[in-house]
Fold this sequence. Notes:
Layout: E1 7-12, H1 16-23, H2 27-31, H3 35-40, E2 48-56, H4 69-80, E3 91-95, E4 98-102, H5 106-120, E5 130-139, E6 144-148, E7 159-166, E8 171-175, E9 178-180, E10 186-190, E11 196-200, E12 206-214
Antiparallel strand pairs: 1-10, 2-4, 2-5, 3-4, 5-12, 6-11, 7-10, 7-12, 8-9, 8-11
Amino acid sequence: MDIGVPFRDLGRVDVAAAVDRVRAIHDLEWTRNTFRQDVLADGAHAATRAILFRHEWVRWDNPWHVNTIEELIELWAAKKGIAAEPYLPVESAETDVGPVHTFAEWATYQDVLQPVVDAAIASLRTGRGIVTRLALVWLKPGAVIPPHDDGQILAHRAHRLHVPLLTPPGVEYKIGGKKLVMKHGHVYDFNNRLRHSVRHKGKQPRVNLFIDYYDDPGSYVPPQYSHY
């Protein structure tokens, strides 16, 4: 979302319990579900791993030419030779741009991450706002994510928040030409409509909690036609 500046520091939140949980994540948890990295990120973030909790779906504007995220997951699973069922959403909510899906992993992490999410969106919260994307994202040491901007529909409408949980030295962001070194446990409202990049010069992985918060969704109105 274009917030008029490259980023805003919304202040510090209590992440102690979340950090303890993240430090205990086994490597297999990071690599069990690669749907986000393989498909949703389109290989653009090959230096990252993710545990995906929530993601929106825009039926009439997606590059895969399918009508539902379930269809996309089934295609991905078939290509990998695995069963799709464990990766399908377990809950959905409608917005004016389409459904927001919650995945099974959220049940495992909700107790420690829900308080962080609630605190992170507190200054932006509205009566009908909704978290449209939610994920833990791991970045390997030495990684470089090249300059890009986010072009999906909700990049124009939703606040992209970063909450750094594991913050080794050497991680540097650049947003709209401005450098940023994120502080541990702070919430950053990140202007992902500007070109941004990341360089990790450190020796330990970085983990951020990504939160997209759509503060003013309308009621869902199906489009009059479909491209598919």
